[in-house]
Amino acid sequence: MKNSEIIGLTTEELTAKLSEEKTTLTKLKFAHAVSAIENPSRITKVRKEIARLNTEITKRKAASASN
């Protein structure tokens, strides 16, 4: 998901997507601990996606606090 797509989402959609991505990351970590997963770089991609979502949520909270 690109930043332009993230900006287009509502705050509720962002929090839902964030919880979904966190669940995905947890599942990937467990799968990787049990046996090597096919594409371990996917863990990094999910972590970056979580960071992007958190950044946008923080921006929106700061914008609403300053208004």
Mean of pLDDT: 94
Name of the CATH class: Mainly Alpha
Which regions are unreliable across 5 or more consecutive residues at pLDDT < 50?
none
Q: What is the β-strand count? A: 0
Strand content: under 5%
Q: What is the count of structural domains? A: 1
Alpha carbon gap, first and last residue: 28 Å
Major β-sheet, in short?
A: none
Tally of helical runs: 3
Q: Estimate the helix proportion, in percent.
A: over 70%
CATH architecture: Orthogonal Bundle
- Overall geometric form: elongated
Structural class: mainly alpha
- The name of the CATH topology is Helix Hairpins
Cα gyration radius (Å): 14 Å
What can be said about this structure in brief?
This protein has 67 residues and is an all-alpha fold. It is 82% helix and 0% strand.
Helix and strand arrangement:
Blueprint: H1 3-7, H2 11-34, H3 41-66
Helix pairs in contact: 2-3
Describe the protein's architecture and organization:
This protein has 67 residues and is an all-alpha fold. It has one domain: Helix Hairpins. Helix content is 82%, strand content 0%. The protein contains 3 helices and no strands. It has helices at residues 3-7, 11-34, 41-66. Helix 2 (11-34) packs antiparallel against helix 3 (41-66). The longest helix has 26 residues, at 41-66. The protein is elongated, with a radius of gyration of 14 Å. The model has no long low-confidence stretch (mean pLDDT 94). InterPro entries: Ribosomal_uL29 (IPR001854), Ribosomal_uL29_sf (IPR036049). Belongs to the universal ribosomal protein uL29 family. GO terms for molecular function: structural constituent of ribosome. One of its GO terms (cellular component) is ribosome. It comes from Mucilaginibacter terrenus.
